[in-house]
Design goal:
31% of the residues lie in helices and 28% in strands. It is of the alpha+beta class. The chain has one domain: Aminopeptidase, CATH 3.40.630. The chain has a 7-stranded mixed beta sheet, sandwiched between helices. The chain is globular, with a radius of gyration of 15 Å. Bound molecules: coenzyme A (COA). Coenzyme A binds next to helix 1, strand 4, helix 3, strand 5 and helix 4.
Length: 170
């Protein structure tokens, strides 16, 4: 059985390995396989995100198998990472984590939930669209999200393959 709960400081050290395992999924897409060999978010950054109070863990038998880390940015909850261990993907854990974060954003009275992701990767934008997010185009991409996309381009992620998305809560 999977349970979703808020992350605790002690979880931070388990999260890079989950991100590493999750990223193996990109090996199925030749042009994105390099992502599987990229750097993971550091334990220190995870500690800070957990302390800020918008990170959730999916536990299986008291062991983390997935996480969602987010933070409040402007009027929105911004999702920084959503990762499920490769051998547990496709079983509804990612959706459960996302639904938990969206519900939390609503309870906090935030206006929306934002993220950046790949437009064409089946478990990225198409998945978020099925969860109610829409791709922002042109002037809808505000300065904050444009800066994130630009940083990602600096890290090798082709700008035309990435997108910013938003779920409006009001
Ligand atoms: C994205 C991710 C967290 C989703 O977690 P998950 O536990 O696999 O999620 P779910 O089982 O709830 O599936 C989510 C959706 O993705 C789809 N999906 C998952 N794995 C897939 C695959 N290998 N191929 C095609 N679609 C896939 C499912 O069909 C599902 O859509 P639905 O709920 O509308 O039917 C997980 O696939 C992952 O860690 N991927 C690598 C890292 C990543 O891309 N993170 C997101 C960055 S924005």
């Amino acid at each position: 059985m999977i349970t979703i709960r808020p992350a605790r400081a002690a979880d931070a050290k388990a999260l890079p390995a989950i991100e590493q395992s999750a990223g193996e999924a990109f090996r199925a897409i030749a042009e994105l396989a390099w992502l599987a060999d990229g750097d993971n978010v550091s334990v220190e950054r995870h500690r800070a995100l957990i302390a800020a109070g918008a990170c959730w863990i999916a536990d299986e038998k008291d062991r983390p198998v997935g996480f969602l880390s987010a933070g409040i940015e402007a009027d929105a909850l911004h999702i920084w990472e959503l990762d499920v261990r490769l051998d547990r993907q496709g079983q509804g854990i990612g959706r459960a984590l996302l639904e938990r974060a969206v519900a939390d954003a609503g309870r906090r009275g935030l206006a929306g939930v934002t993220l950046t992701t790949f437009r064409a990767v089946p478990w990225n934008a198409p998945f978020y669209q099925r969860c109610g997010f829409r791709i922002l185009e042109g002037a809808e991409v505000d300065r904050r999200l444009a800066d994130l996309l630009s940083d990602e381009a600096d890290h090798g992620m082709a700008l035309d393959q990435r997108c910013a998305m938003r779920l409006d809560l009001r």
